[in-house]
Amino acid sequence: MIAIAATRVIAPLNLPGGWPTGRRQPSAAVRRWRAVLVLSAIAVCGTLLGAGSLAGAGQATELSAPAEAVTPAPIHVVQPGDTLWSVARGLQPDGDVRPLVARLRAASGGGPLVPGQRLRLDA
Length: 123
Description:
Blueprint: H1 28-57, E1 75-77, H2 84-91, H3 98-108, E2 118-120
Antiparallel strand pairs: 1-2
């Protein structure tokens, strides 16, 4: 049979001189002030980090895409007599409308316009 001897561990505060290095334990007021200072430092650092992340939130990075407002694309309902050219000229009164006509033709499926057909104008 093995006998286990119990040893008594002496905590530093139970030593006759107090702390083992000879220092005295700080008073309750000093401990409170230290706690207040530590918590204040943590709050200041958190505030600065939060403000820094908010300041950098508006800056676009390579990984983030710029936020765009999502608006539904306008739809043109083809009326009798409408052509791709007349719709394009209505959308773009000035300048060359040939690129716009080409995009509208692709959006309409390439066939002739039919009254009642819906054209998405984001083309």
